[in-house]
Design brief:
Structural class: mainly alpha
Strand content: under 5%
Distance between the termini: 31 Å
Number of helices: 4
Shape: elongated
Length: 82
């Protein structure tokens, strides 16, 4: 349960870091979609920290799913219907 909670915290914090980095990036020259925005955002430490927290959150989620009892996510056994 602790891994699941930590995973949720990592995902939430990562979203905030990435949003702040994207807003801090210099605006593009056009009015449409700016493909270079991703490159400008990736060069900021906040965006990279967000990506690392996304990866850590994914690993923690896998650990949490591996430690949960199989009855939470698996199909019930046929004996349960008797």
């Amino acid at each position: 349960m602790i891994c699941a909670f930590a995973s949720a915290i990592c995902y939430g914090t990562a979203s905030v870091f990435q949003a702040v980095a994207a807003r801090a990036a210099e605006p593009g020259t056009g009015g449409g979609v700016d493909v270079a925005l991703l490159w400008r955002a990736v060069r900021q430490w906040r965006y990279l920290a967000g990506l690392c927290l996304d990866g850590l959150g994914f690993v923690l989620q896998i650990v949490a799913c591996g430690r949960c009892p199989s009855t939470w996510w698996a199909r019930p056994s046929p004996r349960a219907w008797r």
